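Protein chain data
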Amino acid sequence: MPSQRPYSEIRASDAERERVVAFLRKHALEGRLDNEELEERIGLAYSARFVGDLERLIGDLPRPSAPARQRPAHVRHHRRRRRHEPTPALIVAGVALLCVTGLPFAVMAGVVAMIAVIFALSMVLGPFLLIALLIVAASKRNHRPPPPPRWGRVY
């Protein structure tokens, strides 16, 4: 009879318990465990005495040491471009578009911007200008010109 115990009967350390809890939390984040089952397994992990008890808590979950699934040989691997990396064709098309429509577009944008500025100023200053015009018109209406001097006229 061997003098050493099987691995499952060796007492578990605190570090092993923490590794199992982290492993359980990782799988809960991936959706393999719901919150109730996670809490139950974490409680059992912290109260486990032997490595075998810890093994039973994670036995039904996939391990990172499992071999990855092999892709079929006929699938070609394309280099994926990052989303923010423009292709050379896109750069050339952008430069051509800018040369063809750049100047008219810039002129049109300037005209639209000027119209927007004039409209905004008229909305802000318009009521003040209207009141000023009404005051000037009212003052001219009630204001009579002075009579001509009498000493220089012959009757």
Notes: The chain has a mean pLDDT of 79. Residues 105-144 form one domain. Residues 61 and 67 are 14 Å apart (CA to CA).
